[in-house]
Amino acid sequence: MAGCFSTCVLRSDDSGKIRFEKWSKSVKPRTPFGVDEKDILLAGGFAETFPDSSIPLSPALQLNLDRTALSSEQLHRFAEAELRRLQDEKVRRYQLDVDLRVCVIADSSSLLDDFCDIYGGVLEIETLQVGGGRASLAGRDVSIADTGAEYQISYRKPAPIDLSLCSYCGACGRGCPEGCISPELEIDMARCLLCRQCESSCPEEAIDIHAVEELSLQVPAIIVLGDPKIDLPARETGIFGAREIAKFFSTLFSSEIEEVVSHTAAACQYSGRLDLGCSLCVDNCPHGALEKTENGIRLDHLLCADCGNCVSVCPTGAMQNGRLTDPDFVRYIRNVDLPDSATLVVGEEDALRDVWWYSRNEERYNSVFLQYPNPQCLSCYHLLCLFCAGAARIVLLGQPGKRLQCEIDKANHLTTTLFGCSCVETVKTDQVDDVLSLAQREVAHPLSRSSRAFFQGLEDVNRRAGFVAILESLVAVSPIEAKGDTELVIDPAESGLEFLEMSCAEDGCTHCYACINECKMRALRTDEDEQELQYVPGLCVGCGLCVGVCPENVLSLQHATSLNASYFNQRRLAFSEPARCKGCGKVFGARKSLDRVMAILADKERFDREHFEYCGECRVIRLFEAEEI
C-alpha cells in the first residue's frame, strides 16, 4: 500500500492464540499510533515517533522487518521474545510528593526564631537548640541516626513546667530573681541559676526545674544554623548549612520515581556488619546514590541517574537493570534464536531509529537488531552470553562509558585469547554508514551451534555462576585447549579480568566454617560427611570476606595468571576427621573444632566436657535422663 507505514504485529484471536502478521496503515508522526483494535499485543515502530500509543512498540522489530533477511518465522519468534521482554520488565514506578518536614538545629534561640519567622508559613519546622536556651527549644544528649530515607533525632528536652497542673497564677514569674520565666511559661535555661525559687513559689507544685523528657522525631532533612556541637551522620545529602538554604529548597518538589536499578542483598558480597567485602558498585557510582551502611549496600533512587555503572561492574548480579534482569536477558536471547554467524546490532531506541531512517530500504543485512534498555548496564557476562547465543559480531551503538569499555575489553580479551577474534565493536550513533558496513560484512562464528548448548539454563543461576559456566565451556572448546596448550595466560593488568586462587594453612584450620557462611557465591563449601573445606576458584569474586572473618587467619587469596580446564574444578583446601556422636554415631562436626573446644574447657571443672562429645539431639536426651536420675 503506497504511502502507508508498514510494520508487523502480534494479534490475539478469539481463542487466545497469538498470530503474527504484516500490517500497513496510514499514520501521522508525533501522534498516537492510531490503532483502535484491542487485539493487537505488539507492533513494530518507534515510541518517540508515535507518542502515547496504547500499543507497545518495538523499534528492533521494525528494523528487523525492513532491514534484515529474517524470515517470517524468525520475525514471529523475535516479536514474541520482544513482547515477553516488555511484560517481564521489573521497574517500580510511583509518585513522590513534596515533604516539607525539616528539623532546624542551632546554637542560639535567636537563629531559630528568625528562621521560623521567615519560613514558618512554608515549612513544617521542628526546632532544637543545642547548648541551653529556652526550655521549649533546648535539647540535650542529641543523637542523629541515618535510617535511610530519613534521619531519626533522639534527645532529652527540659520539661520544668507541668502545664496540666499550672493555674497560671504568675507566682513563678514574680518569684524568679533572674527573670528567666516568660509570660509564655518558657524558662531560659541559659540564664537559670537553678536556685529553685520558682519551685517554692508555685502553689500548685507544677515546677520541677530538673525534669526532662525523652523525645524522638524523624525528618527527611536537617538544617544546621550557627555552630551547635553535635555529631552528624556520614550521609549528608539531607543535611544543609546556613548558606545552603537555597539548595535545600531546590529539593522540595514532587517527582515520579522509576526504580530501574535494584539491589539484592542475598547476592551481595558486602557485609555491612563487618564493613568488609565487595563495594565495586559504591566505588563506581558517580552520583552518590549507593553507600555502605551497617545493613549492607543502600541505594537512593532519588540520586540514582540510571547510568548503569553499578550494574555493569557488579560481579555477582546483586545489582540489576530492572528493565531487563539477568534471567530475563538470558531467556530473551534464547527466545530470539539468533541465526548462525549473524552480526548483532545493539542499541537504544534513538540509535535504532537513526539506523532505520538513514539506511536504504532495498538493502537487507545478515544481521539482527536488538533494543537493549541502557547498554551501559552491559557486563562482560552479558556480552559473552550474546556471543555464545550465536552473535559472531556484536556492534554496540553509542559512545561507551569508561565502565562499559572495561567490560568490552574483558570480553574481547577472552575471545581473542581463546579463538583469535574479538567479539564486540562500538560505533557512534551518528556514524550510520559504519553500522551498515559492519552489518553487511560476513563473519564466521568460531563456535558450532551444537557447541553452544551450554547456553541453556543460565537463567537459573546468578551472574558469577553463569559467567563461569560460559567461560568453562569456551575454554573446553577452544582450539588452543584442543592443541594441548593448557596455559591460557590471563594478565589482570592487561585484560581487567581477575581470577583468583585461594590457599589455606590446613594445619591451622579448625573447620569453624565462618568463611562458608559469608560466601553467597558458594565458591567455598563443605562436605559435611567428610568434613572437607572445598573451593571452586571460578566462583570466587575476590571480595575477601572469607579472609577477613577467618578467626585463625589461615586463608589467603592470590591472582591466577592462567586458565585451563582444571581451573574450574572443585578442590580441597582443608580436611578434618569427622566428629561422631558417642550416642548415635552421627557426624555432627569436625574433630579439629571439637578438640579446640575441649582444650578451652579443660581448666573449667564445672563443665561436663563429655557432654560435647554428643550431637544436639543426644545431648538433650542425656540432660533429661540425668534429671530423672
How is this fold's topology laid out?
Elements: E1 5-12, E2 18-25, E3 40-44, E4 57-58, H1 59-67, H2 72-87, E5 92-96, E6 101-106, H3 109-119, E7 124-130, E8 138-146, E9 151-158, H4 171-175, H5 197-201, E10 212-219, E11 222-225, E12 239-241, H6 245-250, E13 255-259, E14 261-263, E15 270-271, E16 276-277, H7 280-283, E17 290-293, E18 296-299, H8 309-313, E19 319-321, H9 326-336, E20 342-347, H10 349-358, E21 367-371, H11 380-388, E22 391-397, H12 402-419, E23 424-427, H13 432-440, H14 463-477, H15 479-482, E24 488-489, H16 492-495, E25 500-504, H17 514-518, E26 524-527, E27 532-535, H18 545-549, E28 555-559, E29 562-563, E30 571-575, E31 578-580, E32 587-590, H19 591-600, H20 616-628
Helix pairs in contact: 1-10, 2-9, 11-12, 11-14
Query: Count of helical segments?
Result: 20
> What are the low-pLDDT stretches, counting only 5+ consecutive residues below 50?
none
Derived structural class: alpha/beta
Beta fraction: 15-25%
Rounded average pLDDT: 86
* Largest sheet, strands/sense/barrel: 7 strands, mixed
Notes on the protein architecture:
With 629 residues, this protein is α/β, with parallel strands linked by helices. A hairpin with a 6-residue loop joins strand 31 and strand 32. The longest helix is centred in the middle third of the chain and has 18 residues, at 402-419. The model has no long low-confidence stretch (mean pLDDT 86).
